[in-house]
Each structure stands twice: as structure tokens, then as C-alpha cells.
């Protein structure tokens, strides 16, 4: 079962939550898949999402590629979620460490996912630590970029449907790294007194 470790206010209406758990168990409007440009969901987070969601996710991904071509960092794709408990899967392409311009590419993958979620009218979205696995993006640097980009998105004075952003992380080291970065960026919320009224 996924566990909220800490949460923070992004603005007066939106919250970001840091969780220890499994992304594919999230009951949110959309989860974000750490995808490759051709949406071939073979291993890692992508493989787990495709396996649990069923063949419809890969089938819809193949149709997306046929129609639009390879996915770039700033414009994620999306599919239905099949048997997953969420409504959509947003397929964001994170950079491989060493390919060049990794930092702006990661920022674009995050902001592009948020823009797409808003265009779909979604209220909640859950991210993994994009690019920090087999793409070898340094964890500390990735946490800073991901959280800063989320904060920047909600800092701009514009109406958005999004009310809840979750970082769903699978080990304690990753959770601690994200919390250390979030502590310096956001106002934290006392879960015991505030969670019921904002979830």
C-alpha cells in the first residue's frame, strides 16, 4: 500500500505529495510513464505499467506512433489505462544521462506532462522519478529539476484543473532525496490535521 510521507502546498489550491510505494497502484486521474520515444514499453516502470494495464496500452501506444511519430521530451503522449486503477497513462520521454542537454529535456518532460494533464481536465497526477533508473540521471539533480518545474508550473497565475501532484517513489533513498529538495522549495502541510480537507 502506498504511503504519503510528506506533503506541501504548491499554491492556495494545489498540493504535492511525496509517497513511498508503487506507481501502478495509484488511484489518480493519470500516472506518468517514463517512456522511450517509440513507446515500446519493455522494461522498468514502462514494462510494469504495460504488464498490469494489459495489451491495450501498448496497442494504443503503437497507434500513437503511427499517427504522430516519435514522442519528444516536451510533448508527451497519452493512452487509456487499461486495467490500471487510474484513467490515463501519460507517456513522458525523459533524457538519457550523457546524451546532451539532459537538464532542460527533463524539465520539458515534466512541464509537458502537466500541460497535457490540464488539457485533459485532470485533477490529479502521479509521477515516478523520471530518468533516474536505467537512464542514469543523477538522483539529486533530477529531484531538484522535477520539483522545481512542478513548483514553477503552479507559481504562474493561471487557472488549472490540477489539484494534486504525487511523486510516487519506490525506495527510501529516493524519498529522502526528494523530501530534502522539497523542504527547501515548498511550505509543508501537517498531514494529520490537513490531509482530509485537501485530498
Task: Write a structural description.
- There is one protein chain.
- By secondary structure, the protein is of the alpha/beta class.
- The protein has one domain (3-194): Leucine Aminopeptidase, subunit E, domain 1.
- Helix content is 40%, strand content 21%.
- It has 6 helices and 8 strands.
- It has helices at residues 44-53, 55-68, 102-119, 139-155, 172-183, 191-198; strands at 3-9, 15-20, 30-35, 77-80, 88-93, 124-127, 164-169, 187-189.
- Strands 4-5-3-6-7-2-1-8 form an 8-stranded mixed beta sheet, sandwiched between helices.
- Mean pLDDT is 92; it is low at 192-199.
Poorly predicted runs of 5 or more residues: 192-199
N/C terminus separation: 17 Å
How large is the radius of gyration? 16 Å
Fourth-level CATH superfamily: Leucine Aminopeptidase, subunit E, domain 1
Instruction: Tell me the helix content.
Output: 25-40%
Order of helices and strands: EEEHHEEHEHEHEH
In percent, how much strand structure appears in the residues?
Answer: 15-25%
How many structural domains in the coordinates?
1
Q: How many strand units?
A: 8
Sheet having the most strands? 8 strands, mixed
Cα shape: globular
Mean pLDDT, as a whole number? 92
Q: Assign the CATH class.
A: Alpha Beta
What CATH architecture would you give? Answer: 3-Layer(aba) Sandwich
Helix count equals: 6
**What is the strand arrangement across the widest sheet?**
4-5-3-6-7-2-1-8
How is the CATH topology named?
Leucine Aminopeptidase, subunit E, domain 1
Amino acid at each position: 500500500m502506498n504511503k504519503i510521507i510528506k506533503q506541501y502546498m504548491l499554491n492556495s489550491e494545489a498540493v504535492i505529495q511525496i509517497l513511498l510505494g508503487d506507481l501502478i497502484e495509484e488511484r489518480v486521474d493519470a500516472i506518468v510513464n517514463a517512456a522511450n520515444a517509440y513507446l515500446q514499453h519493455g522494461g522498468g516502470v514502462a514494462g510494469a505499467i504495460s504488464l498490469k494495464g494489459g495489451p491495450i496500452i501498448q496497442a494504443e501506444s503503437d497507434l500513437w506512433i503511427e499517427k504522430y511519430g516519435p514522442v519528444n521530451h516536451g510533448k508527451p503522449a497519452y493512452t487509456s489505462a487499461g486495467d490500471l486503477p487510474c484513467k490515463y497513462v501519460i507517456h513522458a520521454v525523459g533524457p538519457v544521462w550523457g546524451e546532451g542537454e539532459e537538464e532542460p529535456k527533463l524539465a520539458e518532460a515534466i512541464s509537458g506532462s502537466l500541460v497535457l494533464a490540464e488539457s485533459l481536465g485532470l485533477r490529479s497526477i502521479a509521477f515516478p522519478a523520471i530518468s533516474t533508473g536505467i537512464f542514469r540521471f543523477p538522483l539529486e539533480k533530477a529531484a531538484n529539476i522535477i520539483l522545481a518545474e512542478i513548483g514553477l508550473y503552479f507559481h504562474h497565475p493561471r487557472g488549472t484543473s490540477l489539484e494534486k501532484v504525487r511523486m510516487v517513489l519506490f525506495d527510501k533513498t529516493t524519498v529522502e532525496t526528494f523530501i530534502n529538495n522539497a523542504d527547501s522549495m515548498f511550505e509543508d502541510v501537517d498531514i494529520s490535521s490537513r490531509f482530509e480537507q485537501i485530498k
